[in-house]
From TrEMBL:
InterPro entries in the record: RNase_H-like_dom_plant, RNase_H-like_EbsB-rel, RNaseH-like_sf, RNaseH_domain, RNaseH_sf, RVT-Znf
Superkingdom classification of source: Eukaryota
Domain Reverse transcriptase zinc-binding: 1-47
Organism: Hibiscus sabdariffa
CDD domains (alphabetical): RNase_H_like
Signal peptide segment: none
Record-linked PANTHER family: BNAC02G40300D PROTEIN, RNASE H TYPE-1 DOMAIN-CONTAINING PROTEIN
Ranges of residues in domain RNase H type-1: 128-249
Protein name as catalogued: RNase H type-1 domain-containing protein
Length: 280
């Protein structure tokens, strides 16, 4: 936020100001110069993001300089709207870089999913997975939560692991457990979401995996063959909070624990918080 407020992000306009030879047109709309004001406020892409989240800026501040505009808008919001504003700025910059460096053009819906939990399509189940990792004991807890297109909890589970080398292995194990339990529950079409971008990328990659954790990644790839459809998405912590709460709750269990059509009370509360936010 500090870099955005002070215009210290490398927009095309700023790069051109520093005499770099770049095409300074916004990659989202292809209509205007990519300044910080444009990409974070005026572009139709970010405008749709804010509109879909029912966040509206005071019209009286439109003529202000960028830094003053951000201050006025931020101070006019409640706590939840402030969080949405900050995370949206971050998601826009992430989407912008993904478009420029990887050629992947994100939709508004994908960016919203990146920021917070969103329901899967009809006839799909969404599984959010996460882990906690104890670096001193080399132990981790896998947590995974399944919800349907109505946002209702279908199942949940926590599994402890020993001899875990690092946090990446902990996330990979959580992903594997999520896939295996989905197959055991006879779910056919599943969207798996986790907040480890490295795990999502390596599981989704077509090339061979030669890292230390490659056996786990290969096990995941083999396991999903038992599903009719399996999609792996990266999601920010805001959209993965239920699984995060579940993984922390799993510290209280010495053995694997599973729930059908329910979850621990703290996870249910987190899910209800999402439903309230979605309703608002």
């Amino acid at each position: 936020m500090w870099r955005i407020i002070n215009n210290f992000v490398p927009t095309y306009a700023n790069l051109q100001f520093r005499r770099l030879n770049v095409n300074n047109v916004c990659n989202f709309c292809l209509l205007s110069t990519e300044t910080v004001e444009h990409i974070m406020r005026d572009c139709c892409f970010v405008g749709e993001l804010f509109a879909r989240q029912n966040v509206h800026f005071p019209s009286s501040s439109a003529a202000l300089e960028w830094k003053d505009w951000v201050a006025v808008a931020f101070c006019s919001f409640n706590d939840q709207q402030k969080i949405v504003m900050m995370v949206t700025f971050w998601a826009v910059w992430y989407s912008r870089n993904k478009l420029i460096h990887e050629g992947i053009s994100p939709s508004v819906s994908e960016s919203l999913s990146f920021m917070r939990w969103s329901a899967p399509a009809l006839n799909f189940v969404k599984c959010n997975f996460d882990s906690t990792f104890d670096v001193q004991c080399n132990e981790s807890i896998s947590g995974f939560l399944y919800r349907n297109s109505d946002g209702l909890i279908m199942a949940a589970g926590v599994v402890p692991h020993k001899n875990v080398a690092d946090a990446f292995m902990a996330e990979a194990l959580a992903c594997l457990q999520a896939v295996l339990f989905a197959i055991e529950l006879c779910f056919r079409r599943v969207v798996f979401e986790g907040e480890s971008l490295a795990v999502v990328r390596r599981v989704s990659a077509l090339s061979s995996d030669y890292f230390v954790t490659s056996p786990i990644v290969n096990d995941i790839r083999d396991a999903v063959k038992g599903l009719e459809s399996a999609v792996f998405n990266f999601v920010h912590r805001e959209g993965n909070n239920d699984a995060h709460v579940l993984a922390r709750e799993g510290r209280g269990f010495r053995l694997p624990r599973f729930w059908i059509e329910e979850a621990p009370p703290c996870v249910t509360t987190a899910a209800l918080d999402w439903e309230k936010l979605n309703a608002d």
